Amino acid sequence: MRPVIPYVTAALLFGLGTYGVLRRRNAVLVLMAVELMLNAVNLILVTADTTVRAALPHSGQVFALFVIVLAAAEIGVGLAIVLQLYRLRATVAVDEVPLTEPSPTVDADAREAR
Amino acid sequence: MTGADVLLLALGAVAVGSGVLVVTTKHLVRAGLYLVVCLGALAADYLVLTAELVAWVQVLIYVGAVVVLLLFAVMLTRAPIGASDDLDRPGWPAALIGGGVGLGLTALLVDAYRWTTVRLPDAGTAERIGGEIFRSWVLPFEVLSVLLLAALVGAVVLSRPDIGRPGAGQPGRTEAGR
Protein backbone atom coordinates (compact mmCIF):
# COMPACT_ATOMS: atom_id res chain seq x y z
CA MET A 1 0.00 0.00 0.00
CA ARG A 2 1.40 3.37 -0.95
CA PRO A 3 0.43 5.85 1.79
CA VAL A 4 0.95 8.86 -0.45
CA ILE A 5 -2.33 8.18 -2.30
CA PRO A 6 -4.72 8.58 0.68
CA TYR A 7 -2.56 11.39 2.07
CA VAL A 8 -2.86 13.38 -1.16
CA THR A 9 -6.61 12.66 -1.27
CA ALA A 10 -6.94 14.04 2.26
CA ALA A 11 -4.88 17.13 1.46
CA LEU A 12 -6.99 17.91 -1.60
CA LEU A 13 -10.21 17.38 0.36
CA PHE A 14 -8.98 19.73 3.07
CA GLY A 15 -8.19 22.37 0.45
CA LEU A 16 -11.65 21.92 -1.06
CA GLY A 17 -13.24 22.29 2.38
CA THR A 18 -11.31 25.51 3.01
CA TYR A 19 -12.38 26.83 -0.38
CA GLY A 20 -16.01 25.93 0.35
CA VAL A 21 -16.02 27.58 3.79
CA LEU A 22 -14.66 30.81 2.33
CA ARG A 23 -16.68 30.75 -0.86
CA ARG A 24 -20.18 29.78 0.17
CA ARG A 25 -22.75 32.28 1.44
CA ASN A 26 -25.38 29.78 2.57
CA ALA A 27 -24.69 28.67 6.14
CA VAL A 28 -25.80 25.08 5.47
CA LEU A 29 -23.31 24.82 2.61
CA VAL A 30 -20.61 26.23 4.88
CA LEU A 31 -21.36 23.42 7.34
CA MET A 32 -21.09 20.88 4.50
CA ALA A 33 -17.65 22.26 3.62
CA VAL A 34 -16.66 21.97 7.28
CA GLU A 35 -17.68 18.30 7.10
CA LEU A 36 -15.30 17.88 4.14
CA MET A 37 -12.44 19.31 6.21
CA LEU A 38 -13.24 17.04 9.18
CA ASN A 39 -13.29 14.03 6.88
CA ALA A 40 -9.92 14.98 5.43
CA VAL A 41 -8.52 14.99 8.96
CA ASN A 42 -10.09 11.59 9.60
CA LEU A 43 -8.49 10.17 6.47
CA ILE A 44 -5.11 11.53 7.59
CA LEU A 45 -5.56 9.90 11.01
CA VAL A 46 -6.55 6.52 9.60
CA THR A 47 -3.71 6.56 7.06
CA ALA A 48 -1.20 7.58 9.70
CA ASP A 49 -2.42 4.65 11.74
CA THR A 50 -1.30 2.30 8.97
CA THR A 51 2.04 4.00 8.27
CA VAL A 52 3.30 5.00 11.70
CA ARG A 53 4.03 2.16 14.08
CA ALA A 54 3.09 3.84 17.36
CA ALA A 55 3.55 2.44 20.84
CA LEU A 56 -0.21 2.09 21.20
CA PRO A 57 -1.66 0.25 18.21
CA HIS A 58 -4.72 1.67 16.42
CA SER A 59 -4.51 5.06 18.14
CA GLY A 60 -5.21 6.82 14.84
CA GLN A 61 -8.43 4.92 14.34
CA VAL A 62 -9.54 5.68 17.90
CA PHE A 63 -8.84 9.36 17.24
CA ALA A 64 -10.84 9.15 14.01
CA LEU A 65 -13.78 7.78 15.98
CA PHE A 66 -13.46 10.67 18.45
CA VAL A 67 -13.42 13.18 15.59
CA ILE A 68 -16.55 11.60 14.11
CA VAL A 69 -18.35 12.04 17.45
CA LEU A 70 -17.13 15.64 17.68
CA ALA A 71 -18.41 16.26 14.15
CA ALA A 72 -21.82 14.93 15.13
CA ALA A 73 -21.96 17.27 18.15
CA GLU A 74 -20.74 20.18 16.02
CA ILE A 75 -23.37 19.64 13.34
CA GLY A 76 -26.13 19.47 15.96
CA VAL A 77 -25.21 22.77 17.57
CA GLY A 78 -24.36 24.37 14.21
CA LEU A 79 -27.72 23.53 12.72
CA ALA A 80 -29.49 24.79 15.85
CA ILE A 81 -27.69 28.10 15.35
CA VAL A 82 -28.53 28.18 11.63
CA LEU A 83 -32.21 27.46 12.24
CA GLN A 84 -32.36 30.11 14.96
CA LEU A 85 -30.73 32.59 12.58
CA TYR A 86 -33.31 31.70 9.95
CA ARG A 87 -36.12 32.19 12.44
CA LEU A 88 -34.82 35.61 13.50
CA ARG A 89 -33.64 37.04 10.18
CA ALA A 90 -35.37 34.89 7.55
CA THR A 91 -32.01 34.39 5.82
CA VAL A 92 -29.14 31.93 6.07
CA ALA A 93 -26.60 34.03 4.16
CA VAL A 94 -23.56 34.33 6.41
CA ASP A 95 -22.46 37.72 5.06
CA GLU A 96 -25.79 39.32 6.02
CA VAL A 97 -25.38 38.48 9.71
CA PRO A 98 -24.83 41.69 11.71
CA LEU A 99 -21.80 41.33 13.94
CA THR A 100 -22.70 44.24 16.22
CA GLU A 101 -25.30 44.19 18.95
CA PRO A 102 -28.57 45.48 17.47
CA SER A 103 -30.14 48.42 19.26
CA PRO A 104 -33.55 47.63 20.82
CA THR A 105 -35.50 49.94 18.49
CA VAL A 106 -34.00 48.41 15.34
CA ASP A 107 -34.72 44.96 16.71
CA ALA A 108 -38.33 45.91 17.41
CA ASP A 109 -38.63 47.36 13.90
CA ALA A 110 -37.32 44.15 12.38
CA ARG A 111 -39.88 42.20 14.38
CA GLU A 112 -42.62 44.58 13.22
CA ALA A 113 -41.53 44.14 9.62
CA ARG A 114 -41.91 40.41 9.90
CA MET B 1 0.85 -0.84 -7.93
CA THR B 2 -1.07 -3.46 -6.04
CA GLY B 3 -4.83 -3.91 -5.94
CA ALA B 4 -5.11 -1.81 -2.79
CA ASP B 5 -3.31 1.06 -4.54
CA VAL B 6 -5.64 0.94 -7.52
CA LEU B 7 -8.66 0.89 -5.21
CA LEU B 8 -7.32 3.77 -3.14
CA LEU B 9 -6.62 5.78 -6.28
CA ALA B 10 -10.10 5.19 -7.71
CA LEU B 11 -11.89 5.90 -4.41
CA GLY B 12 -9.76 8.98 -3.84
CA ALA B 13 -10.67 10.26 -7.30
CA VAL B 14 -14.37 9.70 -6.54
CA ALA B 15 -14.05 11.45 -3.16
CA VAL B 16 -12.20 14.47 -4.55
CA GLY B 17 -14.47 14.72 -7.59
CA SER B 18 -17.66 14.69 -5.53
CA GLY B 19 -16.00 17.06 -3.05
CA VAL B 20 -15.44 19.52 -5.92
CA LEU B 21 -19.12 19.19 -6.81
CA VAL B 22 -20.14 19.77 -3.17
CA VAL B 23 -18.38 23.14 -3.08
CA THR B 24 -19.29 24.25 -6.61
CA THR B 25 -22.83 23.04 -7.35
CA LYS B 26 -25.66 25.55 -7.60
CA HIS B 27 -28.29 23.16 -6.20
CA LEU B 28 -28.49 23.01 -2.41
CA VAL B 29 -30.02 19.54 -2.26
CA ARG B 30 -27.54 18.15 -4.78
CA ALA B 31 -24.67 19.43 -2.62
CA GLY B 32 -25.99 17.21 0.18
CA LEU B 33 -26.27 14.22 -2.13
CA TYR B 34 -22.75 14.72 -3.52
CA LEU B 35 -21.61 14.86 0.11
CA VAL B 36 -23.11 11.37 0.54
CA VAL B 37 -21.03 10.12 -2.41
CA CYS B 38 -17.90 11.73 -0.99
CA LEU B 39 -18.43 10.30 2.50
CA GLY B 40 -19.25 6.85 1.07
CA ALA B 41 -16.05 6.85 -0.98
CA LEU B 42 -14.12 7.80 2.14
CA ALA B 43 -15.77 4.96 4.08
CA ALA B 44 -14.65 2.54 1.37
CA ASP B 45 -11.18 4.11 1.64
CA TYR B 46 -11.17 3.29 5.35
CA LEU B 47 -12.13 -0.28 4.55
CA VAL B 48 -9.16 -0.59 2.17
CA LEU B 49 -6.95 0.91 4.89
CA THR B 50 -8.16 -1.90 7.23
CA ALA B 51 -10.13 0.44 9.50
CA GLU B 52 -13.30 -1.61 9.54
CA LEU B 53 -14.99 -0.14 12.60
CA VAL B 54 -14.25 3.44 11.54
CA ALA B 55 -15.72 2.70 8.11
CA TRP B 56 -18.99 1.41 9.51
CA VAL B 57 -19.23 4.20 12.08
CA GLN B 58 -18.63 6.63 9.22
CA VAL B 59 -21.52 5.14 7.26
CA LEU B 60 -23.79 5.09 10.32
CA ILE B 61 -23.07 8.54 11.73
CA TYR B 62 -22.05 10.62 8.71
CA VAL B 63 -24.16 9.19 5.93
CA GLY B 64 -26.95 8.15 8.28
CA ALA B 65 -27.22 11.06 10.68
CA VAL B 66 -25.17 14.09 9.67
CA VAL B 67 -26.31 14.20 6.04
CA VAL B 68 -29.93 13.67 7.06
CA LEU B 69 -29.62 16.56 9.51
CA LEU B 70 -28.08 18.73 6.80
CA LEU B 71 -30.90 17.88 4.38
CA PHE B 72 -33.42 18.67 7.13
CA ALA B 73 -31.75 22.06 7.55
CA VAL B 74 -31.89 22.63 3.79
CA MET B 75 -35.62 21.97 3.85
CA LEU B 76 -36.37 23.90 7.07
CA THR B 77 -34.66 27.01 5.71
CA ARG B 78 -36.98 26.84 2.68
CA ALA B 79 -34.22 26.40 0.15
CA PRO B 80 -35.31 26.63 -3.47
CA ILE B 81 -35.55 23.33 -5.34
CA GLY B 82 -33.87 24.48 -8.53
CA ALA B 83 -30.55 26.19 -9.10
CA SER B 84 -29.94 29.34 -7.10
CA ASP B 85 -27.45 32.00 -8.12
CA ASP B 86 -26.83 33.67 -4.78
CA LEU B 87 -24.98 30.84 -3.06
CA ASP B 88 -21.47 32.14 -3.66
CA ARG B 89 -19.36 35.09 -2.75
CA PRO B 90 -16.68 36.43 -5.12
CA GLY B 91 -14.33 33.55 -5.61
CA TRP B 92 -10.71 34.54 -6.00
CA PRO B 93 -9.65 34.90 -2.32
CA ALA B 94 -11.32 31.59 -1.49
CA ALA B 95 -9.68 29.93 -4.50
CA LEU B 96 -6.32 31.41 -3.54
CA ILE B 97 -6.47 30.27 0.10
CA GLY B 98 -8.15 26.93 -0.56
CA GLY B 99 -5.82 26.10 -3.45
CA GLY B 100 -2.82 27.23 -1.43
CA VAL B 101 -3.80 25.09 1.56
CA GLY B 102 -4.60 22.04 -0.58
CA LEU B 103 -1.54 22.20 -2.80
CA GLY B 104 0.74 23.14 0.09
CA LEU B 105 -0.38 20.14 2.13
CA THR B 106 -0.09 17.94 -0.97
CA ALA B 107 3.49 19.08 -1.58
CA LEU B 108 4.35 18.53 2.10
CA LEU B 109 2.93 15.00 2.21
CA VAL B 110 4.33 13.96 -1.17
CA ASP B 111 7.74 15.19 -0.07
CA ALA B 112 7.41 13.25 3.18
CA TYR B 113 6.30 9.91 1.74
CA ARG B 114 7.43 9.91 -1.94
CA TRP B 115 6.42 6.59 -3.51
CA THR B 116 7.22 4.34 -0.57
CA THR B 117 5.25 1.24 0.36
CA VAL B 118 4.11 0.10 3.77
CA ARG B 119 2.67 -3.19 4.84
CA LEU B 120 -0.93 -2.91 6.04
CA PRO B 121 -1.27 -3.66 9.77
CA ASP B 122 -3.83 -5.92 11.43
CA ALA B 123 -7.40 -4.94 10.70
CA GLY B 124 -9.01 -2.52 13.14
CA THR B 125 -11.97 -4.70 14.01
CA ALA B 126 -14.54 -3.73 16.60
CA GLU B 127 -12.90 -6.04 19.12
CA ARG B 128 -9.43 -4.50 18.78
CA ILE B 129 -10.63 -0.88 18.67
CA GLY B 130 -12.98 -1.47 21.58
CA GLY B 131 -10.16 -2.97 23.62
CA GLU B 132 -7.95 -0.02 22.71
CA ILE B 133 -10.62 2.54 23.68
CA PHE B 134 -11.48 0.94 27.00
CA ARG B 135 -7.88 0.19 27.89
CA SER B 136 -5.89 3.26 26.82
CA TRP B 137 -8.43 5.93 25.97
CA VAL B 138 -11.06 5.61 28.70
CA LEU B 139 -10.76 9.16 30.03
CA PRO B 140 -11.10 10.89 26.62
CA PHE B 141 -14.02 8.59 25.91
CA GLU B 142 -15.81 9.69 29.07
CA VAL B 143 -15.00 13.36 28.45
CA LEU B 144 -16.51 12.90 25.00
CA SER B 145 -19.77 11.71 26.54
CA VAL B 146 -19.85 14.85 28.71
CA LEU B 147 -19.24 16.92 25.58
CA LEU B 148 -22.13 15.21 23.80
CA LEU B 149 -24.39 16.03 26.73
CA ALA B 150 -23.21 19.66 26.66
CA ALA B 151 -23.89 19.85 22.92
CA LEU B 152 -27.35 18.38 23.44
CA VAL B 153 -28.22 20.90 26.15
CA GLY B 154 -26.71 23.70 24.06
CA ALA B 155 -28.80 22.79 21.03
CA VAL B 156 -31.96 22.68 23.16
CA VAL B 157 -31.22 26.06 24.75
CA LEU B 158 -30.38 27.61 21.37
CA SER B 159 -33.60 26.49 19.75
CA ARG B 160 -35.82 27.69 22.63
CA PRO B 161 -36.01 31.49 22.35
CA ASP B 162 -37.68 31.85 25.75
CA ILE B 163 -34.63 30.57 27.67
CA GLY B 164 -32.00 32.99 28.92
CA ARG B 165 -33.10 36.11 27.07
CA PRO B 166 -34.85 38.42 29.56
CA GLY B 167 -37.17 40.94 28.02
CA ALA B 168 -36.71 39.75 24.44
CA GLY B 169 -39.87 37.81 23.72
CA GLN B 170 -42.45 37.75 26.48
CA PRO B 171 -41.52 40.20 29.24
CA GLY B 172 -44.29 39.10 31.56
CA ARG B 173 -43.25 35.50 31.38
CA THR B 174 -39.57 36.09 32.01
CA GLU B 175 -40.38 38.39 34.91
CA ALA B 176 -42.61 35.72 36.38
CA GLY B 177 -39.87 33.18 35.73
CA ARG B 178 -37.55 35.04 38.04
From TrEMBL, chain A:
GO terms for biological process: ATP synthesis coupled electron transport. Its EC number is 7.1.1.-. It is found in: Cell membrane; Membrane. Pfam families: Oxidored_q2 (PF00420). GO terms for molecular function: NADH dehydrogenase (quinone) (non-electrogenic) activity; quinone binding. The keyword Mitochondrion does not apply. InterPro entries: NADH_UbQ_OxRdtase_chain4L/K (IPR001133), NUOK/Mnh_C1-like (IPR039428). It is a multi-pass membrane protein. It catalyses: a quinone + NADH + 5 H(+)(in) = a quinol + NAD(+) + 4 H(+)(out). NDH-1 is composed of 14 different subunits. Subunits NuoA, H, J, K, L, M, N constitute the membrane sector of the complex. Belongs to the complex I subunit 4L family. NDH-1 shuttles electrons from NADH, via FMN and iron-sulfur (Fe-S) centers, to quinones in the respiratory chain. The immediate electron acceptor for the enzyme in this species is believed to be a menaquinone. Couples the redox reaction to proton translocation (for every two electrons transferred, four hydrogen ions are translocated across the cytoplasmic membrane), and thus conserves the redox energy in a proton gradient. This is NADH-quinone oxidoreductase subunit K.
From TrEMBL, chain B:
InterPro entries: NADH_UbQ/plastoQ_OxRdtase_su6, Nuo/plastoQ_OxRdtase_6_NuoJ. The keyword RNA-binding does not apply. Pfam families: Oxidored_q3 (PF00499). It catalyses: a quinone + NADH + 5 H(+)(in) = a quinol + NAD(+) + 4 H(+)(out). It is a multi-pass membrane protein. The chain crosses the membrane at residues 6-24, 31-49, 55-79, 91-110, 137-158. GO terms for molecular function: NADH dehydrogenase (ubiquinone) activity; quinone binding. It is an enzyme of class 7 (translocase). It comes from the Bacteria. Its EC number is 7.1.1.-. One of its GO terms (cellular component) is plasma membrane. Belongs to the complex I subunit 6 family. NDH-1 shuttles electrons from NADH, via FMN and iron-sulfur (Fe-S) centers, to quinones in the respiratory chain. Couples the redox reaction to proton translocation (for every two electrons transferred, four hydrogen ions are translocated across the cytoplasmic membrane), and thus conserves the redox energy in a proton gradient. This is NADH-quinone oxidoreductase subunit J. It comes from Micromonospora avicenniae.
